[in-house]
Amino acid sequence: MSLDDIDRVTVLGAGNMGHGITEVVAIAGYEVTMRDIEQDLVDDGYESIQWSLEKLSEKGLIDEDPEDVMSRVSTEVDLETAVEDADLVIEAAPEQMSLKKDIFGDLDEFTHEDCILASNTSSLSITEIATATSRPEKVCGMHFFNPPVKMDLVEVIYGEETSDETAETVYEFTEAIGKTPIYVRKDVNGFVVNSVLGPFGDEAGWIVSAGEATIREVDATMVHERGYPMGPFELGDLTGIDIGYHVRKEAGKDVPPIVEEKVEAEELGQKTGKGYYDYEDGDGADYG
Ligand code: 3HC
Fold first, then answer.
1. What's the Cα-to-Cα distance from 121 to each of 97, 150, 151, 201, rounded to whole Å?
2. pLDDT at residue 248, rounded to an integer
3. What pLDDT shows up at residue 247?
4. Which of 81, 91, 207, 224 is the most buried if burial means most Cβ atoms within 10 Å?
5. Atom of ligand 1 at shortest distance to CA of 123?
6. Where is 143: in which H helix or E strand?
7. How far is the centre of ligand 1, averaged over its atoms, from the C-alpha of 52 (Å)?
8. What is the 192 CA–ligand 1 centroid distance (Å)?
9. How far apart are CA 100 and CA 245, in angstroms?
């Protein structure tokens, strides 16, 4: 399968990453199906793409009319129907290995034999996900960053059995949708970006949990002294505090108490209106 053979793309998941990836693929001119397990989830994701395209259009960041881009996006709930014509599937389901393996087992059955199966996992082993299929050479990682429409980088990750042909096709596809790919040739936990970003977020959690600094102090330091686009707590609110929590748990790591508290209180960030900052009754991530 080469880049020219990729005609139809299916994205599994309509959450932040799933709808964002769907949007990026549609903007690039591909027909794309976005699938989630319930119609409400699919509808929410669809509306988020419409909102985002309007924003981009207002700012002159896309040339096409948003409605023309949307005409290339279809939605589906049934997995088999969603993937039966796909040449590339990008899975963006929750970060649980057992769930991913179930999905990849189904994909192996429902997709045509040349179809490439990519996972947007942020830290789970591509090699292990691929064991759920009979075509590990066609399985690789394709890790986008949140929000996909704004973030340039995509990690293209080799599992132990990923073929060069598969990785190269996904690399070229990443360029074709206007992103900058990098190869990650070792299937290590966290790949490259989260291997570096993870300890940064963890350390922020531990020093706030220990009462050594406040959330605002940490975020302000990283933005105003280090020049980061946002601090680790605002970033947690953007990506979803539960996402980082599950990544740590799946890796068998201790979770800082501040993260546990937020997950238990279901204050997961922007998507619930409250996380480390209050986006409904407060000023949001305002740290000067
Ligand atoms: N689509 C369209 N517009 C959007 C948008 C989207 N998805 N998200 C935000 N916007 C809009 C906002 O509504 C706002 O619009 P306004 O100007 O009309 O108010 C505008 O974009 C915000 O623009 P800003 O100038 O304030 O911000 P920038 O565009 O310069 O930067 C950012 C925003 C790209 C999110 C930047 O803050 C950033 O880079 N943050 C860090 C993000 C990051 O590190 N992501 C990686 C997370 S780790 C990850 O994803 C890994 C995973 O495995 C968990």
1. 9, 19, 16, 18
2. 87
3. 84
4. 91
5. 53
6. strand 139-143
7. 11
8. 21
9. 17
| pLDDT tens, residue by residue, 111-152 | 999 999 999 999 899 999 999 999 999 999 999 999 999 999
Write down the domain spans for the chain.
3-184, 195-272
Do residues 41 and 11 touch, judged by C-beta distance below 8 A?
no
Distance CA 110, CA 132 (A): 13
What span, in angstroms and rounded, lies between the C-alpha atoms of 276 and 105? 37
Q: Is residue 284 lining ligand 1, measured as CB closer than 6 Å?
A: no
According to CATH, what is the number of the domain 3-184?
3.40.50.720
Bond from prior residue into 257 cis (ω within 30 degrees of 0):
no
Which residue intervals of the chain are DSSP H helices?
16-27, 39-58, 66-70, 79-83, 97-110, 126-130, 164-176, 193-209, 215-220, 232-239, 241-250, 257-264
Q: Are 174 and 142 in contact (CB under 8 A)?
A: yes
Atom of ligand 1 nearest to the CA of 197: 48
CATH number of the structural domain 195-272:
1.10.1040.10
Is there a common fold for 3-184 and 195-272? no
Task: Report pTM.
Answer: 0.94
Expressed in angstroms and rounded, the spacing between residue 127 Cα and the centre of ligand 1 is 31
The full 3-state SS of 66-110, as one line of letters, equals HHHHHCCEEEECCHHHHHCCCCEEEECCCCCHHHHHHHHHHHHHH
66-84: pLDDT as tens digits: 999 999 999 999 999 999 9
Active-site positions read 122, 143, 155, 194
For residue 17, the ligand 1 atom closest to its alpha carbon is 50
